[in-house]
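User: Could you check the structure of this?
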Amino acid sequence: MNPGCEGGATIYALASGAGKSAVAIIRISGPKASIILRSVAGALPAARVATLLAIRNPKTAEILDRGVVLWFPAPRSFTGEDCAELQIHGSRAVVRAILDVLATFTETRMALPGEFARRALANGKLDLVSVEALADLIDAETEQQRRLATIAASGALQKTVGQLRAQVLDLMALVETELDFSDEGDAPHDIARQIQRRIPEIQHELESLRSSHERAELIREGLSVLIAGPPNAGKSSLLNALARREAAIVSEYAGTTRDLIEVKLDLGGFPVNVIDTAGIRESEDPIEREGIHRALTKSGSADLVLWLVPLGSQESGPPEELLRRPLWRIGTKADLSSGHVGCESARGGDEKSLELSVKTGLNLEFLMDRLQDFANENMTVASSLVVANARQRNAIDGALDALADAERKNLPLEILAEDLRRACFALEELIGKVGVEDILDSLFARFCIGK
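Assistant: Sure, the predicted structure tokens are below.
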């Protein structure tokens, strides 16, 4: 059995950040939590009442610290078990001393990563969608990622999926009634036609949910912006200017950048991954050719390409591979030239052109504003219903596939019943009722030990 599923052991961990801090929180959960709390704090405080107590080593009676103690009896706790929290001074020595004392209790051990949340899931305090949202919230680095995780944790998706599941169950009941009681006078008839009339409504709801995944995935993973162009076009200089640090080597010699260099940015709360690439040109150098190949390959997954060309140069346009993505052409080194470079968007006739000088800062802030606007247009999630990850999207795809099969005409009722059962199973899988045990280990491994 996975250790994270052991119900008998009482677990403990530092739930706040490691290192020196003003306050540290140690969390305890399990059947011996009350015994441990009485032993180290001398008393069991009133439930959910913060109480200042001395925390002692029960074997020596030495005071280790004085802190705020909280007691959460089951089932009204985060994990659904008896829980306690010790809010103590964040000295490394204090934390270590108290953890050492907790380790002396029998049937008590240090928690595994995510074990508190896993017990909350096992005890019905959280569902799988809520746990995934919690993991995303812990990992959130930008405001939009925080907002996405908060929306995902609201429970709106679970409620909607539960209602759709209930509709599928209702259709399954109709089929079972026809199969079991077709010879009864009051049994409903023409079941297949009724079902085929109601399935499109469920499909429409599911397709609407699925459409939210693309933007959510962008927010989770970050918008991918590829900086491309001929050698010495100022690509690495622009990357450094956007990152506000020396992320890439800048040289007057062509071919300095040989591999992809990626920098993560926070533009107005939107996560953006900016990727510097090798200068695109004909080359006999096998290493440089590999760098160019990687740049062109990476462009296939880019959400936006910035094609840089020095103003006044006679460089040819971008390769065909880059024109398949949204593309802005940028005339660089404007401090050395008064020329103008225009371009056409890879998606139609609206012009996307800009003259830029990293050296003087000309239009640099304007470019960043345009990138933020582009992110806002492609990444904002307005709805409270969000399919936040690939697992949830795949479950919806499974339900849609099963409903498409059930919608076929002239199916035997036994086949129709199986298709509806598959649709119901997929929806149950989405919210974590069935078939998710194999993903739990990797999911909870994303958590810190005290969560």
